[in-house]
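# nightly structure sweep
# worker-07 picked up a monomer target from the shared queue
# config: single-sequence mode, recycle default, output format = structure tokens
# input follows
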Amino acid sequence: MIYTQEVQHMCCVAKGANHANAPIPEEGKWVHAKEIKDISGLTHGIGWCAPQQGCCKLTLNVKDGIIEEALVETLGCSGMTHSAAMASEILPGKTLLEALNTDLVCDAINTAMRELFLQIVYGRTQSAFSEGGLAIGGSLEDLGKNLRSQVGTMYGTKAKGSRYLEMTEGYCTRMALDENNEVIGYEFVNLGKLMDALKGGATGPEAIEKAKGSYGRFKDAVKYIDPRKE
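# output follows
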């Protein structure tokens, strides 16, 4: 430690106040975090790239400062999916501080890591008040039984109106319209169920029928349209 001459010639004044840092909630406990290993929690958040043309939803499950589980979901850029693949290998096993200072390949994923770091070290996690936190594998529960991201893809024009392309239930195959041409429901194919049926030996048409479902007043429609063709 090097001190300047001015500091060396100063007299000593005793430090009276010695207040501890504020505790943060972690997995059902109040913790005075002083080191990275003092941090635990599960949370998720969003990051975006510099031109804001793509985004990443990142979920981390941290135990004793180490990332034990990572879920990386991306949207808006084909290259981001490959970056997500690499990030899913890079993140687990790293400490929060290491991950913050690691190139996660995609700017959106790096930004998501920064935002999650701030949430976690300030105690703003989803599991802050859950005793013992969430088990490793908790991230997958957000995806549901099909292990697919919750995605909605919609398109609309002033001239022709809205087109439902994909809902969280699945790939939209038909839209149901009433006598005023207003949407009153839709039909979808659940892609997870479709793949399970195909793997189970069903033919293509059989698998599609098994995976079909509808929402709203679909059966009451006056007219049905294919959102991708009509």
